[in-house]
Amino acid sequence: MTEPDLPLLPILEAEGLVKTYGSLVALDRVDFAVYPGEVLAVVGDNGAGKSTLIRCLSAAELADSGTIRLHGAAVRFRTAREARMAGINAVFQSVDADAAIDIATNLYRDREQAHPGPLGKALLWMESKGMRRSAAASASTVILLDEPTAALGLRESAKVRHFIEHLRGRGLPIVVVSHSIPQVLEVADRVHVQRLGARVAVVEPGTVDAADLLAIMSGAMHVDPKDQALGPVR
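The chain above was modelled as a monomer; its predicted structure follows.
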């Protein structure tokens, strides 16, 4: 008799996250989950709450309410450093080069090497170091990337995608915020769609095309919860 498959549990998950800035609701009771060895893309129009979600998950900002769990246990980090020490590593498009490299150093403790572009410096540096060190990713539980290829050319963007595939191959979950729908459909296992601060759908790239994603982002298309990829893709 074969043993039944055990359910695959999220590495990092959130339930009911709320974040406001005065009267602006940046996150409206957002649920989130990323599973071992998957690339989860987060997409949405400007103001959809994508970067705010990443910042709250990594404790760069603190959510007003809601629950964040790491390996199933509720956590409430007070600072981004506490989150990094627990293995939640984030690189933000808005950070300057020194800050990005500092985060990269937390992931891969080695000497600094310069590459063009603020976020590109961090990601390409991590890729070059991580590919040569067998234990390079051991300090990370999940990696959150906010627009990792926005300021890069085609060649550099391809290197970042290779880096993401390399980490996925080691079983690390990667969360990627991106405006590039073609890139999302190429690299992601699942796509978390934000609209007006709320999660409106989670879909598999094989079940939607670029036009569908844009329609979901704009509110022109609704995805019934029973048709959503809320669990891991096996």
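The chain has seven helices and ten strands.
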